[in-house]
Design brief:
Shape: elongated
Strand order of the largest sheet: 1-2
Order of helices and strands: HEHHEHH
Number of strands: 2
């Protein structure tokens, strides 16, 4: 690894060895392909909160603007986390070969794959 790449890696938040699991797809170590990029997918399961949705929607209707309601309202919880987070580890090879849609979504959301 060249010095610029090492500096880049040194400045990133760390993950300890005992936190990393095998690839959830191919069941091999996440570095088996020799690539130094791996994926941690974090999942939360959530339930929509009807009371919060109703409160926000009512304020939007009353004020005539969703943007104004977000500023003027109490910012209710629209959903509540019921389970999670759950981390799933995937090697770069599996993401590129078997999960191209995920790769495209992550890229569009601002990830730097």
């Amino acid at each position: 690894m060249n010095s610029a790449a090492q500096k880049f890696v040194d400045d990133l938040p760390g993950i300890k060895q005992d936190e990393i699991k095998t690839c959830a797809i191919c069941k091999r170590g996440v570095a088996h392909d020799g690539n130094f990029l791996i994926w941690r997918l974090r999942f939360d399961r959530a339930a929509l909160n009807p009371r919060g949705i109703q409160q926000q929607y009512g304020l939007e209707q009353m004020l005539g603007s969703p943007a104004l309601a977000r500023i003027m309202g109490t910012n209710p919880d629209i959903a509540k986390v019921i389970d999670g987070p759950c981390d799933v580890w995937v090697c770069e090879q599996c993401v590129l070969e078997r999960m191209p849609q995920l790769f495209a979504i992550a890229e569009s959301e601002g990830a730097k794959p």
